[in-house]
Write the structure tokens for this entry.
Amino acid sequence: MRVLLRNLYYAMIRLYPASFRSEFREEMLWIFDEEANRGRAVPLLLDAACSVVWQRLRPQAEVTVPNPYYVEIDSAVPAQRLAQATLVVFYLAFCLSILIAPWFTPVKRSVRNGWLLTHIRVVASVPNEGPGKM
Amino acid sequence: MKNDRSATSPLSTASLHILLALAGEDLHGYGIIQEIARQSNGSYRPGPGTLYDNLKKLMDQGLVIDVPRAAYPKDEDRRLYRITQTGRAVLSSEIERLREVVLTAQTRLRERKPRSI
């Protein structure tokens, strides 16, 4: 039973904010062990529950910003923006390849690799200056 | 804001008792709980959550500090806490405020007359 209560108390300590937990976890567990030896473990669980709620509800605005006009700039390239840039580059390369393909693809045969290709040749009709024109 | 007493007064019950407990000597966390229980004749015994919640607040306000390791007693390996001069001043002003509250309350209770219906 006591081990169970201790594990429960340990789990409740994990609900505290990280800074609070790292600073006071060991001492809280020590006091819990001391109080549990005197049979006062259950009230400490209620105390921890109230304290956790209070710690979580306390506004984080208490952390003062030294100067609001200067903010730290994260110079690392975010993975999301890197992925977006890569996608845009691939899209532009694909569009460019479609545009320049007729100049570089020597399509002469009608069947290539099992695919039937249809050649469409656009011929401009330009009136020539024939002999009938005098 | 650390030395702004208006921001710390009135103190919460736990904070008041913590400062009172530390006013006599440097104590570790469990020592503070035991001292508070002794001062209140066992009627008030804060748990570790309440204790460290208020202790952290007092430390952020500069009213309580960690005792430097060099000043630890030989047989003490637990973290010790010490009240600062600002903490003593805040405690004194809070005690004075409470004294005025008690005086006012006593005066009012003496002056209170039964309502005539």
